[in-house]
Predict the structure.
Amino acid sequence: MRVLVVSDTHHDRAALDRAIVQQPSAEVVVHLGDGEQEALEAQRAFPEKQFYMVRGNCDWGSRLPAHRLLTLAGKKLLLTHGYAENVKYGLSEAVRLAQERGADILLFGHTHEALMDYENGLYILNPGSLHGWGGTYGFVDLTEAGIATNIVPIR
């Protein structure tokens, strides 16, 4: 199963649509915040995809959760924007939260800087920001052979 992971679209619906179209095998789209409006619009435009979203610090008035624990293909994914865990100053709080919740994968945004890591059995992915020049997104492949994370520049 392929999971498309995006964050920080900041009203750039065109970039979000391009990322979805560029990953046609992705069954699931995860939006990690700061773009709730365009994520909801994309959800309506791509009804064949399953969408999961969390609130970002710029999603004013949002009723989305700040965190979400999701199980896909037998793996637990912790979704967070990252502002509540102060990810701009380090990952320790976010990693601790993921470990406390038994997550296999930590997905976060907020920094606008793409990151892939693996720490003590935890896969960590920040897809970066889709908005603006040099935008990036990520995807996670969940297979019987294991987990693979990737970061891709938007075309």
